[in-house]
Amino acid sequence: MTLNNIEHKISSFSAMNKRGVTLIEVLVVVIIMGVLAGLGVANLQQAVRNTRIKDAAMNTAAFLERVANDANRLNMPLCVKVDQTTKKTITAYRSVNGSCNNPGDKVAEMTLDSDNKFVVAEKDPTECTVNGMQNYVSNTAVFAPRLGLSAAPSGCWYVRYGGTEHYGVAIKAATRNNLTYMLSYDGAQTWMAH
Fold first, then answer.
1. What CA–CA distance (Å, rounded) separates 176 from 170?
2. Cα dihedral value 161, 163, 167, 169, nearest 10
3. Domain range for residue 125?
4. What is the pTM of this model?
5. C-alpha angle 182-184-187 in degrees, rounded to nearest 5
């Protein structure tokens, strides 16, 4: 092997290593990464909305269950009222002379986080319809103590996440002694029990 052959092989080997990538190859990779990132962001946003409405419905049911237990423990009616200004806070008060018009001492309070608000849903789950009538709580409910039974009145408390189609509902059905919750991700058209 001559020196010229060796130099020729080295120069051709160097030329192959210097090839690099073309602009088209870079653009294809960038486009693929953009599509995958876009899909990931959309799925992440959907997961955040689902989680926030589920937490709001679950926390509302737990809060109302606590108020029902407090009414039975204190052996007195408690008024649960949704703040009509912000629609984000629900408060339990001692009733004054059995009336909720002039609430007494505050017993408990819960404020929804994020973009959640108490609302009236456009379509009720069957558990919120009694004798063909909607049974939702839009403002005030009385939790009257009952021996061995939940003090919570039958009804539904709706929560909506921002302007989305994500709804949650805390339900006290007449046939059950505890509160449950349901979720809807399609504008209250279909409800899923949890």
1. 13
2. 70
3. 52-193
4. 0.76
5. 145
Asked if the structure places residue 121 within a domain, the reply is yes
Side-chain-side CA neighbours of 102 within 13 Å: the count stands at: 2
* Sequence-distant (≥ 6) Cβ neighbours of residue 58 within 8 angstroms: 168, 181, 194
Sign of torsion, CA 64 68 74 78?
positive
Domain-located, residue 70: yes
Give the CATH number of the domain where residue 178 resides: 3.55.40.10
What is the rounded distance in angstroms from the CA atom of residue 30 to the CA atom of residue 37?
A: 10
**Is the distance from CB of 180 to CB of 168 less than 8 angstroms?**
no
pLDDT along the chain (194 residues), means of 10: 62 60 86 81 83 93 94 91 91 83 84 88 70 68 88 88 90 86 88 84
What is the DSSP code (8-state) at residue 76? S
Residue 105 covered by a domain: yes
Residue with token string 């989305």: 164
Residues counted in the chain = 194
The token duo for 105 is 């001492």
Q: How many separate domains does the chain show? A: 1
Q: What is the CB neighbour count within 10 angstroms for residue 155?
A: 20
Is residue 47 a part of any domain in this protein? no
